Amino acid sequence: MNVRTFALLVAMMGLVFLSGGSASDVRAASPPALSILLPVNNAVLGNASPVPVVFTVSNFNLTEPGTGPSSPNAGHVAVFVDGGLTMQVAVDAFRLALASGPHMILLQLVMDNGTALSPDVSQSVSVNVTQGPATGQPGISIAFPMEGAILGTDLYLSYRVSNFVLVPPGRLNVTNEGHIHVIVDGSFYAEVADYQPVHLGLPDGAHNVTLQLVDSLHHPLNPAVSASAHFTVHALVGRVIPVDYTTYFGVTNLALAFAIVALMYRKLEA
Q1: What does the alpha-carbon distance between residue 106 and residue 126 come to, in Å, rounded to a whole number?
Q2: What residues form DSSP beta bridges with 110?
Q3: CB atoms < 10 A from the CB of 105, how many?
């Protein structure tokens, strides 16, 4: 083997080595990836607080929109809420102010010009936002009247609600939100969506009132949450009954007139 042939073999082996190394590098390169850490899927977020969103990105450089050339390895995150583009971020944590109800949050990696990567790199989670607390068992109690009380007809019912927020009926059905059904003597009486005392105009006799927490679609909570009180109504209790003195004064005036006439008759006889 002459020197020229040996040099050619060495060159060919070098090319094979380099091409093999490059192929290995290509095979080892991982595509961009995105993963949502918070909120977890189907999370309930309470007290109408902004929703914290935290995610992680790999093999992709986050850059502010409009600050660089479009590249499949760099760009920002497009944030969609319920299918609509809400914001664009280049940081891995932010907050979303969402109304009560169920929502879907989707994060998508895009290039600087807003074009989605190919293949698409995105992830979504579903959340349920409520004005009430995220945890805790709802409760209701009757503050007035007390059990077994005897009351007048001008009666106001007051109550306390815990771990539950009262909202007008007809809205989306949301965890720990709803209103109160007032049931008197086994029949529906009224629905209440605020915290003001409820006026009850009831006839004399024994009565039973039940307050039941229901959702925005008028369905009782599961498990059911209610409070009841038994009491008696008497029309005269707690009322001042005015006395009509007309008859009394009439009789008095008549007696006074007779007395005057008798006195004058005596003076004439004298």
Answers
A1: 9
A2: 76, 116
A3: 21
User: What pLDDT, on a 0 to 100 scale, did the predictor assign at position 262?
Assistant: 65
Q: By C-alpha distance, which of 59, 225, 197, 22 is closest to 141?
A: 225
Q: What is the pLDDT of residue 15?
A: 47
CA quadruple 74, 75, 77, 80: dihedral sign: negative
Which pair of structure tokens corresponds to residue 58? 């790999």
Question: Which of these CATH numbers, 2.60.120.10, 2.60.40.10, 1.10.8.60, 3.10.450.50, describes 139-233?
Answer: 2.60.40.10
Q: What is the pLDDT of residue 154?
A: 83
Mean pLDDT, to the nearest integer, of 122-129?
97
Q: Taking residues 160-165, report their average pLDDT.
A: 96
What pLDDT does residue 264 have? Answer: 67
- Contact between 51 and 40 (Cβ < 8 Å): no
DSSP state of 174: -
The tokens for 12 are: 């060919």
CA angle 131, 188, 194 (to 5 degrees): 30
Of the candidates 169, 183, 190, the residue with the CA atom closest to the CA atom of residue 224: 183
How far apart CA 131 and CA 99 sit, in angstroms, is 9
Give the single-character DSSP code of 19.
H
CB 205 within 8 A of CB 232: yes
* Confidence band for 153, pLDDT divided at 50, 70 and 90: confident
Structure tokens at 185: 């003597």
- 29-129: CATH number: 2.60.40.10
Do residues 211 and 180 touch, judged by C-beta distance below 8 A?
yes
